[in-house]
């Protein structure tokens, strides 16, 4: 079951992650290429987070999507014998992580409308 994106829950979590990393909105903007205004709107819950924005923030904050989206571990239970994609991806060098994220993003874009 997929969780519905809730900007009013995700936004404050993103702001807290940024503050925990001791980064200003300007610094996050420089790291991601997102505008200061976009970052503020996302953090306030008034603007949705795109897949591209998600990947950019994952790179900037050096964390996985579950942490960024404030998804609890109980919501993402997997077979204990299986590794999550995020944990396996985090073990790779950053260049390979970025390459695979771009491939995954392309796959999602191509699958739009194929899966109901």
TrEMBL record:
<feature type="domain" description="HTH cro/C1-type">
    <location>
        <begin position="14"/>
        <end position="68"/>
    </location>
</feature>
<protein>
    <submittedName>
        <fullName>Transcriptional regulator, contains XRE-family HTH domain</fullName>
    </submittedName>
</protein>
<dbReference type="InterPro" id="IPR001387">
    <property type="entry name" value="Cro/C1-type_HTH"/>
</dbReference>
<dbReference type="GO" id="GO:0005829">
    <property type="term" value="C:cytosol"/>
</dbReference>
<dbReference type="InterPro" id="IPR010982">
    <property type="entry name" value="Lambda_DNA-bd_dom_sf"/>
</dbReference>
<dbReference type="Pfam" id="PF01381">
    <property type="entry name" value="HTH_3"/>
</dbReference>
<keyword id="KW-0238">DNA-binding</keyword>
<dbReference type="GO" id="GO:0003700">
    <property type="term" value="F:DNA-binding transcription factor activity"/>
</dbReference>
<dbReference type="InterPro" id="IPR050807">
    <property type="entry name" value="TransReg_Diox_bact_type"/>
</dbReference>
<dbReference type="GO" id="GO:0003677">
    <property type="term" value="F:DNA binding"/>
</dbReference>
């Amino acid at each position: 079951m997929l969780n519905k994106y809730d900007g009013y829950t995700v936004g404050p979590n993103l702001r807290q992650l940024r503050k925990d990393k001791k980064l200003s909105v300007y610094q996050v903007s420089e790291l991601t290429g997102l505008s200061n205004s976009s970052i503020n709107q996302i953090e306030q819950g008034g603007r949705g987070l795109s897949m591209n924005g998600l990947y950019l923030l994952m790179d900037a904050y050096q964390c996985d999507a579950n942490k960024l989206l404030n998804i609890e571990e109980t919501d993402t239970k997997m077979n204990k014998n299986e590794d999550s994609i995020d944990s396996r991806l985090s073990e790779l060098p950053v260049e390979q992580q970025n390459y695979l994220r771009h491939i995954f993003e392309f796959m999602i874009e191509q699958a739009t409308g194929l899966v109901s």
